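for the record, two folds in this file. i put them one after another cuz i was lazy. first one right below, seq on top, C-alpha cells after. the second one comes after a little note so u can tell where it starts
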Amino acid sequence: MGLLVRVIVNALALAAAAWLFDDIRVRGDDPGQQALTLVGVGLVFGLVNALVAPVVKLLSLPFIVLTLGLLLLVINAVMLILTSRIAEALGLGFTVDGFGTALLGSIVISVVAAILGAVLDD
C-alpha cells in the first residue's frame, strides 16, 4: 500500500473515531478544511506509529507479555494522545480529551484502518 493510501486510511479512521466520540474533535470552518485537517493528522499519526510506537513497544515488551497483550491497548491510546498533542503544536485542529476516550478511539481507529487496509489492499 502506498504512502498516500495509508495517510487517507488513517484520516478516514480518525474521522470515524471523531464521529463516534464527542471528546475527539476535528476543528474547521467547513468540511473541506476538516478533511485537510484529518489528512494532516493522518500523516502525523502515521509518523508517530512508524517512529515512536515500535520503540515504546520494544521497551515495554516484558510487560506486554506479562499482561497478555493488553498493554498494547494502552500504548495505542498513548500514541493517539501524543498525535493529538503534536497536532495541536503544529496548529492542526485535532484534540483528544481524556485517556478513556483515547483508549476507545484507538480501538475504533485500529478496526477501521484494518478493514479499509484489507479492502484497499486488493
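(here's the note) second protein begins now
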Amino acid sequence: MDKRKRERFRRLLLKEKEKISGEIESLKSDSNPEQKELAGRSSGYAYHLADLASDSYNRELNLNLASDEEKILYQIDRALRKIEKGDYGKCENCGKKINEERLKTIPYAQLCIRCQEREEKSQ
C-alpha cells in the first residue's frame, strides 16, 4: 500500500476513534446512577420498583455497549500501529492483502474476508 493510501486510512481510523470515544463517554455518562438519583430526589417523587429495574437494565446495557466499543478502540489503535510499521492492510492469518473496499468499511479489520468467514464459522 502506498504512502498516500496509508495516510488516508490513518485519517479514517483517527476519525473513527474520535467518534467511538465520544460514544463511549456518552454511554458511560448515561449509565451514571448518581445523576438519576439526584433528579429523583429533587423532583420529590420516589422511584417505582419497575423504574429502578429498568434503570438498572439500561445501565448494564450501556456498560456492555461501552465495553464492546472499547474493544473496537483497541483494534483501531492496533491498526494505527500497523500503519506506522508498514504492516497495515495485511491479513493476520494468511498474510495476504485485505481488500481496500473492506478496509474502507472496517478500517480496523485484521483479517481478509475469507479468513474472517472461516473464523466466524468455527465459533
